[in-house]
Design a protein that fits this description.
Order of helices and strands: HEEEEEEHEEEEHE
Protein name: Gliding motility lipoprotein GldD
Organism: Pontibacter cellulosilyticus
Strand order of the largest sheet: 4-5-6-10-9-8-7
Helix content: 25-40%
Keywords: Lipoprotein, Membrane, Transmembrane, Transmembrane helix
Shape: globular
Structural class: alpha+beta
Largest sheet: 7 strands, antiparallel
Radius of gyration: 31 Å
Strand content: 25-35%
Oligomer: single chain
InterPro entries: GldD-like
Distance between the termini: 114 Å
């Protein structure tokens, strides 16, 4: 074999080695397990929690967030004194429905049962429903339901004096964002609802 042919053969052999090394490295790299970065969410800056007195004429009154607006319930089934406590910036809404029970024990029991059924409808998606019964400073008895999981309503309650008044509330969000990312906002509005219950008073207005 001539010297020229030998040099050419050596060069071709080296090229094949380099190509084989490059191909092997590429295959190894493709086999590396990829770990995706966790999905990020936009930061939510929450305002300071300050309150104002409900001014509308209702059989009840309470203090609610200065960052919320009161709007009458405009649904087709709305009754007098049904209102929404809207949080435009947070996309949250606390729906309030009211009933005058007028010393009717059966009506009271039916309303309590209905409230429990409405909460129970979320059991399919909720992995936890915790009920707490408290007595407000005004002497009313409130049952509070905290729901965990991808549910449309994360916080519900009803409060009554057992003779004349029955008020039910439910927190909703007008967004498809997952509850995990909404957690700070949910806690923010929960505190507002607790303040609402602690400042609740019956006015006697019809």
């Amino acid at each position: 074999m001539s010297e020229t042919k030998e040099n050419t053969t050596i060069k071709l052999a080296k090229l094949k080695v380099f190509l084989w090394i490059g191909l092997t490295a590429s295959m190894v790299a493709c086999g590396v397990e990829y770990t995706p970065k966790p999905k990020g969410y936009n930061r939510i800056d929450l305002p300071a929690q300050t309150y104002q007195q409900l001014q509308e004429e209702h059989p009840y009154t309470f203090e609610y967030s200065q960052h919320a607006k009161i709007r009458p319930d405009s649904s087709s089934i709305a009754q007098p004194h049904w209102i929404n406590v809207l949080y435009p910036r947070l996309g949250a809404n606390v729906q309030l429905t009211y009933k005058d029970i007028n010393n009717n024990d059966k009506m009271l029991n039916d309303l309590i049962e209905d409230a429990r059924k409405l909460t129970g409808k979320h059991q399919i998606k909720a992995y936890s429903i915790e009920e707490t019964e408290v007595r407000t400073p005004s002497g009313a008895v409130a049952s509070i339901f905290e729901l965990e999981g991808e549910v449309p309503s994360q916080f519900q309650f009803y409060v009554t004096d057992s003779t004349q008044h029955f008020l039910r509330g439910a927190l909703y969000f007008r967004t498809a964002t997952q509850n995990d990312s909404l957690a700070p906002v949910i806690e923010f509005v929960k505190k507002d609802i607790i303040h609402m219950l602690n400042t609740l008073k019956w006015t006697g207005k019809k």
